[in-house]
Amino acid sequence: MFGLFNKKRKKSRLEDWQIEPGEQFKKIVLADSVQYVDTKGGRTLYFSILVFMETPDRNNASLSQELSVKEVDKIWQIKGIKVALDHILICVASVQHQDDIEWAKAFLHSLKFNNSVD
């Protein structure tokens, strides 16, 4: 089962991932997720974590599925997940301009897991 609420852990599981989109993004921390909004407009990144109580067989931070790209109300959504140790990182990038789709894909592929889990 998922261990979504681990009271012993003080920091967010999202901190176990290297998510650094750049200075032009404003970080919005929510209870169980984080969003990065491009202050120049047009790009938003959303991340959330699922945590397994037991470690799955995979222990690398590769994209576990192909990224999906879909246009919804004139916004392009690029979605995928990454798996590392007992984490599943849910990734969603929303961009207004079709030219930003390749940027979003490259950014999601570049995400790294920090192995220093306490």
What does this structure look like?
The strands form two sheets. Strands 2, 3, 4, 5, 6, 7 and 8 form a seven-stranded antiparallel β-sheet that branches. This protein has 118 residues and is mainly beta. The protein is built from one helix and nine strands. The chain has a single domain (13-113), classed as Mog1/PsbP, alpha/beta/alpha sandwich (Protein Transport Mog1p, Chain A, 3-Layer(aba) Sandwich). Helix content is 8%, strand content 42%. It has one helix at residues 101-110; strands at residues 17-18, 25-29, 33-38, 43-51, 62-63, 68-72, 75-84, 87-95, 112-113.
In total, how many beta strands? 9
- Could you name the CATH topology? Protein Transport Mog1p, Chain A
* Number of H- or I-type helical stretches: 1
Order of helices and strands: EEEEEEEEHE
Task: Estimate the global geometry from the Cα principal axes.
Answer: globular
Percentage beta strand: 35-45%
Weakly predicted, low-confidence segments: none
